[in-house]
Amino acid sequence: MWKYLVILVLCTCRPAFSKTPEEWKSRVIYQILTDRFAHSEQSPEEECSELYEYCGGTFKGIENNLDYITGLGANAIWISPFVENTELGFHGYWPKNIYEVNPNFGSSQDLKDLITACHDRDVWVMADLVLNHMGYQHGCHWSGCPLENTNNFTGYAPFDNEAHFHPYCEIDWSNEESENVQTCWLAFLPDLNQTNPDVHELLIDWVTSLTTDYGFDGYRLDFVKGISFDFWQDVDEAVDSYTIGEAYDGNTEKVASYQGPLDSVLSFPMYFTLESIYQWNDKEGMDKIHDQLALEATTYTDTTILGGFLDNHDRARFLSHNSDVTSLKNALVYLMMARWIPIIYYGTELGFDGGNDPQNRESMWPHFDTEHELYKFISALNTYRSSLGQTFINSEQEESVYDEKFYSFTRHETFVAITNEGSGSADITRTVTDSNFAEGTVLVNILDETDTVEVKDSQFEVTLTKGEPKIYGIDVTSSTSRLYANFLTAILLSSLVTLLSNFV
User: Fold this and answer.
1) Distance CA 229, CA 260 (A)
2) What whole-number distance in Å separates Cα of residue 307 and Cα of residue 339?
3) Of 27, 34, 171, 220, whose Cβ has the fewest other Cβ atoms within 10 Å?
4) How many Cα atoms within 13 Å fall on the side-chain side of residue 120?
């Protein structure tokens, strides 16, 4: 009996919805700005034009459109900060009262209903937490704040005392190694002093309660460069779930330093690498991916749980710099097939091309369209990715041929080839000699099943036509593939027999 009591204790010491970094590897995340996604009832027939103001999106609006999200192949959502904000804080990053849900998005029960509806579909929910600062004081804005207003903390909860904040000063971005990034005010936002015992305790108590009170599965943490490693370590331990930090920086060593205090970080250095490859007028070569991966292998603790992305709410969208949809498809193939946790920013699947903030924070309405070329493309990638199961998730990303115009890799019986040459390019042909595919294996392009290649003399040839990416999977109807499949089946059956015999 005692062993069952021990098992019971072990199983109940962790919150029911806590998810580990290892478990999050199975997720494809869809990032949402709640205010911009959907209204509770019928959304307007015209898109929101006042992008600095609230547009009317709600938790109920997200819940009503979960079919759209799962149809894309996403099985997790990252929602923008949900707490009550100061004036015009539609995005959620200007907290006013951390204990209250933003009434523009709905009630706390609406948020709980959304999370329950997600869990009913095996969709996990990531909360976005702002622990560095509070929202703007009266008379203040991102362009400035009168000095006499910087000591007025009326209306904030629970931080309404001057002692809760660092004294006003501006961050010196030319010297990020100094303490001023952690003690000065980001864009005139009142900077919380986490070394104050009261502030530390209140924040840690609050984040500790969120998983139990709401059932969040993971946490994205805003502006991690603004707070010490020690504090982030305390947060990571308190939430007891997957944590991923926003260290908005292109310096790999600097970003990687936050993986340790936190489980993971958003992969900004690779984002900037892909931006240089696909979006710059004088674009870099495809082999820059190899260079970045080599650097990451020596700096990050675990690259497999990084959050990969092409668009987000702080950067101009991919298509705003490069309108070629074929180029975006190539980048999307890398996003979805590389070994990390992919994040799709809402609207990318509909070809949104907004520029800098707030143009990159468009309303989804009236644009919902499951027949859009990019929606169907991403859905197809996710369907294939999902079909490969846990073996794919655990597989290595083994680089193959790469050069200035071509990059390729293999993951679990899948060969991926991409380019940045665009839709108007000439054919790009490369011979692959270092794959692990057996002689005679037939590979089928999952994006065009009429496109096949066969491994002959331990090599095969790949041609990218008009800049289109290719994903080759094993053709299970070929003789070699059938033999391999039968071999795997025999191993599985043998293992099953052994397992069953242990119970006899």
Assistant:
1) 9
2) 10
3) 171
4) 9
Q: For 183-218, what is each residue's pLDDT tens digit?
A: 999 999 999 999 999 999 999 999 999 999 999 999
Alpha carbon separation from 210 to 172, 241, 484 (Å, rounded): 34, 11, 48
Q: Are 312 and 345 in contact (CB under 8 A)?
A: yes
- pTM (predicted TM-score): 0.92
Looking at residue 165, the DSSP 8-state letter turns out to be: B
- What's the pLDDT tens digit per position in 335-387? 999 999 999 999 999 999 999 999 999 999 999 999 999 999 999 999 999 99
Dist. CA 265–CA 346, nearest whole Å:
20
Strands in 80-178 per DSSP E: 83-85, 95-101, 124-129
Catalytic residues: 222, 246
Distances (CA, A) of 96 to 57, 99, 101, 143: 19, 9, 10, 19
- Mean of the pLDDT values across residues 169-196? 93
Q: Which of 346, 437, 443, 441 is nearest to 398 (CA)?
A: 437
Question: DSSP string spanning 85-96?
Answer: ESTT-TTS-SEE
The torsion angle over the Cα atoms of residues 215, 220, 224 and 230, rounded to 10 degrees, is: 40
Residues 280 and 316: beta-carbon distance below 8 Å: no
Structure tokens at 271: 């984002």
What are the structure tokens assigned to 345, written together? 């920013």
Give the CA-trace dihedral at 91, 97, 103, 108, to 10 degrees.
Answer: 110
Q: Cα separation of 215 and 19, whole Å?
A: 10
CB of 188 within 8 A of CB of 145?
yes
- 221: helix, coil or strand? strand
